[in-house]
Amino acid sequence: MKLDTVELFQNAGYTVPVEGEIDFSDVDYYGDRPFRTARVTGKAENKGGIVTLRLDVSLDVETHCARCLKPLAFEQKAKVRETLVKRSEETDDASESYTVVDGRSLDLYDVVLSAVLLDIDMVFLCREDCKGLCPVCGADLNEGMCDCGKKDQEDR
Ligand SMILES: [Zn+2]
Ligand SMILES: [Zn+2]
């Protein structure tokens, strides 16, 4: 998914709507590939010579709970709020956050992926207080205590 930036940089007041989908199923995330399709909507806008990119991202994630291993599917939201500058206009001002556009268009893949990775959890849980699996028998402790746990209590 590419954003054509030629006219955008040339014309103050110019707005380009952005709408589409990006497939992130090849992305390796801590040894897993949990990402699916991201829906991207928003716009790029030239306001008085300053070009900004504002996108709302909704990414389908399919993974499993890190504790109980139950399959898990959810939508991860993210926002892109970037100022775009042409390669030739790049400055050394490190205090400004901007995306440098090389050539005539910007590939939104990296921009959207960085926004997602900024917001997404490192570990996915089915719920915050998931009790996980019994290390001895593998029973799902969310569904009640297994016999190993009961035995522990009887011994006490
Ligand atoms: Zn769980
Ligand atoms: Zn057990």
Provide the descriptors you would attach to this structure in a database record:
2 domains, 40% strand, binds zinc ion, 156 residues, two-stranded antiparallel sheet
Quick recap:
With 156 residues, the protein is an alpha+beta fold.
Low-confidence region ranges: none
Structural class: alpha+beta
The molecules bound to the chains, other than polymers, are: zinc ion
For the largest sheet, list the strands in their spatial order: 2-3-4-5-6
Percent range for β-strand residues: 35-45%
Largest sheet properties: 5 strands, mixed
Helix tally? Answer: 3
Helix content: 10-25%
Count the E strands: 7
Question: How many independent structural domains?
Answer: 2
Mean pLDDT: 90
Radius of gyration, whole Å: 23 Å
| N-to-C order of helices and strands | EHEEEEEEHH
Structure description:
- The chain starts with a strand and ends with a helix.
- β4 (50-64) and β5 form a beta hairpin.
- It contains 3 helices and 7 strands; from the N terminus they run βαββββββαα.
- The model has no long low-confidence stretch (mean pLDDT 90).
- By secondary structure, it is an alpha+beta fold.
- The protein is elongated.
- It has 2 domains: 2-125, no CATH class; 131-156, no CATH class.
- A 5-stranded mixed β-sheet has the order 2-3-4-5-6. Strands 1-7 form a two-stranded antiparallel sheet.
